[in-house]
Design brief:
The structure is a homodimer. By secondary structure, chain A is an alpha+beta fold. Chain A has one domain: Glutaredoxin (3-Layer(aba) Sandwich), CATH 3.40.30. The first copy, chain A, has two helices and four strands, in the order E-H-E-E-E-H. Chain A has a four-stranded mixed sheet, covered by helices on one side. The first copy, chain A, is globular, with a radius of gyration of 12 Å. Chains A and B meet through helix 1 and strand 2 of A and helix 1 and strand 2 of B.
């Protein structure tokens, strides 16, 4: 089963953004994913991983919740 | 480091409630916890675990976000 991680910079105040991603993934896939983990970090980090594979890194990608959800989709089982 | 799990019933529509708990824990403790995982489940489940220990189970406890945050606190490092 799929684990999605959203690692975000706590001192930068990125909780809202991380939370938006978690919600969007869970609303879209529900039990198609096993869990979405909000992982605390610092130093400006904002990375989304699916089963360990980076699907979004704010240093390389433009922030777009829908694009992140689309990037998760291929990792989700037939239940989605 | 501390892992908090919020396992919730997807078909029951408990995502909002699970999300509220995750946010409250992260707002309170930030990097004092390593991660808060929203774990998908069914069959009416709503359980919060801290490092594997159940601190809230809706079949036994009244739902109270503040009480859940207080139950997490002893598990959080000195950073909190």
């Amino acid at each position: 089963m799929t684990r999605v991680e959203v690692e975000y910079c706590v001192p930068c105040g990125m909780l809202n953004r991380a939370n938006d991603v978690a919600r969007a993934v869970l609303e879209q896939f529900g039990e198609g994913v096993e869990e979405v983990a909000l992982v605390t970090g610092d130093d400006g980090i904002f990375i989304v991983r699916v089963d360990g594979e980076v699907v979004f890194d704010k240093t390389e990608d433009d922030y777009d919740v829908d694009a992140i959800v689309r990037a998760v989709k291929p990792h989700v089982g037939a239940a989605a």
